[in-house]
C-alpha cells in the first residue's frame, strides 16, 4: 500500500504551493517538509527567488508553528514565503470578523473634542460638529451634518465609503488616504453625498446614488430590482 504524502509540492506560474496533510501530526508534517525541501531545493547562489504559499487545510497552526514552517522554507536561499493560510480560525479572529461586519447605530451629536469609533460600519443619526471625529473599520453613514473629521476603513479597507446628508467636513480619511474639504462644497445642496477612493487612489465626492454601481456589495439586502 502506497504511503500517503503529508506534503504535496505543486508548481504554479506564480511559484510553489505546499499543501500540508491536516490528518497527521504536526511533527510528521514538519519532518517531511524539511526532507523534501532538502532533497529538491538545495541552496544555490545564482538561482532566482521562488515565491512559496503554504496551505494548511483544516489544521490550526499556532503563531509559533507558522514561524517554524516559514523558517524551514527560508533556510533554502531561493525560497520566499508569501503566505501561510488555514481554513481554521481562532475564536478571537472569528469574533473580530463578526464585529467588522456589524452595523453600529448611534443617535447622538459628536461634539468638539469627542471621538466616536466602532469596529464595523457606523450609522450615526446626528451631526458631527467641528472638532468632532468619527472612525470606523467599515463604512460611515451620517444622517446629519458632517462638519468635523471622518475616517472610514481605518484598519486599511480602501473599499470603505463615507456618506452624509450634508457634507462639509474638516477632513476626510479612507484607509490611509486623506483629503481636506475642497472649497467647492455646496452646503445648501439637497442631495446626500458620499466620498470614496477612485481608481487613481484619490478621495472623490459624488452623489450617494453612485454607490450602487461603485460598491455593489455595500448592502446585504438581496431583494428588489
From TrEMBL:
Alphabetical list of InterPro entries matching this protein: CAP/MinC_C (IPR016098), MinC (IPR013033), MinC_C_sf (IPR036145), MinC_N_1 (IPR055219), Septum_form_inhib_MinC_C (IPR005526)
Domain named Septum site-determining protein MinC N-terminal: residues: 7-84
Keywords: Cell cycle, Cell division, Septation
Domain Septum formation inhibitor MinC C-terminal residues, every copy: 107-205
Single biological process term from Gene Ontology: cell morphogenesis
Pfam families to which the protein is assigned, alphabetical: MinC_C, MinC_N_1
SUPFAM superfamilies registered for this protein in UniProt: Cell-division inhibitor MinC, C-terminal domain
Domain of life: Bacteria
Similarity section: Belongs to the MinC family.
Function description: Cell division inhibitor that blocks the formation of polar Z ring septums. Rapidly oscillates between the poles of the cell to destabilize FtsZ filaments that have formed before they mature into polar Z rings. Prevents FtsZ polymerization.
Record-linked NCBIfam families: minC, PRK00513.1-3
Summary of subunit composition and partner proteins: Interacts with MinD and FtsZ.
Name of protein: Probable septum site-determining protein MinC
Gene designation: minC
Amino acid at each position: 500500500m502506497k504511503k500517503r504524502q503529508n506534503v504535496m509540492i505543486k508548481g504554479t506560474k506564480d511559484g510553489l504551493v505546499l499543501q500540508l496533510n491536516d490528518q497527521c501530526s504536526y511533527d510528521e508534517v514538519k519532518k517531511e517538509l524539511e526532507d523534501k525541501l532538502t532533497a529538491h531545493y538545495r541552496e544555490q547562489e545564482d538561482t532566482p527567488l521562488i515565491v512559496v504559499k503554504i496551505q494548511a487545510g483544516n489544521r490550526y497552526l499556532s503563531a509559533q508553528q507558522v514561524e517554524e514552517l516559514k523558517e524551514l522554507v527560508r533556510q533554502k536561499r531561493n525560497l520566499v514565503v508569501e503566505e501561510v493560510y488555514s481554513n481554521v480560525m481562532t475564536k478571537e479572529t472569528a469574533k473580530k470578523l463578526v464585529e467588522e461586519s456589524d452595523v453600529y447605530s448611534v443617535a447622538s451629536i459628536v461634539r468638539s473634542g469627542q471621538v466616536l469609533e466602532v469596529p464595523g460600519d457606523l450609522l450615526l443619526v446626528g451631526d458631527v460638529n467641528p472638532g468632532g471625529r468619527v472612525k470606523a473599520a467599515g463604512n460611515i453613514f451620517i444622517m446629519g451634518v458632517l462638519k468635523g473629521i471622518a475616517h472610514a476603513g481605518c484598519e486599511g479597507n480602501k473599499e470603505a465609503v463615507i456618506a452624509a446628508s450634508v457634507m462639509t467636513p474638516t477632513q476626510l480619511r479612507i484607509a490611509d488616504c486623506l483629503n481636506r474639504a475642497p472649497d467647492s462644497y455646496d452646503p445648501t445642496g439637497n442631495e446626500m453625498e458620499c466620498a470614496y477612493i477612485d481608481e487613481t487612489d484619490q478621495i472623490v465626492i459624488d452623489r450617494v446614488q453612485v454607490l450602487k454601481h461603485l460598491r455593489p456589495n455595500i448592502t446585504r439586502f438581496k431583494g428588489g430590482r
